[in-house]
């Protein structure tokens, strides 16, 4: 698919995806976005694909469903974030801190450590990280994250 410039409606759909995701703890299907904006289903799917092509959303490979709306994940991950009475999955340690930043709210975070499987708990209170003594390792530089975003 040739990359097209994003349209104003695409940005509105992206905003809708984020608002819906925060409210419902899951992203809307493209059919729900199409209905919200009174679009044909095919146009809703094309909008999702344009947003994906521009890295404004990340679709499930080969499908029209949202897998990631950074920092939110639509699939379970080792990073569970509780904030404002809701629970979200984060894509990585970095995104687990991005969720409370995006929400402008405190959060409690439970992460399963990749090396041991142990649970690490940390949080954000008043905009400040509350954590024990541990560190985060990013195996790839940021410029390579989209090489394989699911496994980065």
Describe this structure in words.
It contains four helices and eight strands, in the order H-H-H-E-E-E-E-E-H-E-E-E. With 152 residues, it is α+β, with helices and mostly antiparallel strands. It folds into two domains: 8-69, Winged helix-like DNA-binding domain superfamily/Winged helix DNA-binding domain (Arc Repressor Mutant, subunit A); 73-147, Alkylmercury lyase (Bactericidal permeability-increasing protein, domain 1, Super Roll), CATH 3.15.10. An eight-stranded antiparallel beta sheet has the order 1-2-3-5-4-6-7-8, with helices on one face. Helix 1 packs across helix 3 (41-53) and helix 2 packs across helix 3 (41-53). The radius of gyration is 16 Å and the shape is globular.
Summary tags:
single chain, Arc Repressor Mutant, subunit A, 8-stranded antiparallel beta sheet, 152 residues, alpha+beta, Bactericidal permeability-increasing protein, domain 1, 2 domains, 22% strand, 4 helices
């Amino acid at each position: 698919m040739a990359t097209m410039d994003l349209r104003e409606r695409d940005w509105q759909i992206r905003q809708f995806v984020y608002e819906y995701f925060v409210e419902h703890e899951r992203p809307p299907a493209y059919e729900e976005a199409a209905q919200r904006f009174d679009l044909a289903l095919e146009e809703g799917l094309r909008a999702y694909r344009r947003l994906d092509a521009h890295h404004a959303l990340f679709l499930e490979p080969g499908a029209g469903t949202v897998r990631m709306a950074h920092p939110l994940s639509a699939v379970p991950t080792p990073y569970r974030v509780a904030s404002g009475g809701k629970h979200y999955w984060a894509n990585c340690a970095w995104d687990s801190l991005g969720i409370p930043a995006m929400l402008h709210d405190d959060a409690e975070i439970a992460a399963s450590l990749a090396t041991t499987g142990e649970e690490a708990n940390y949080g954000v209170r008043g905009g400040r990280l509350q954590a024990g003594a541990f560190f985060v390792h990013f195996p790839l530089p940021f410029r390579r994250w989209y090489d394989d975003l699911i496994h980065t």
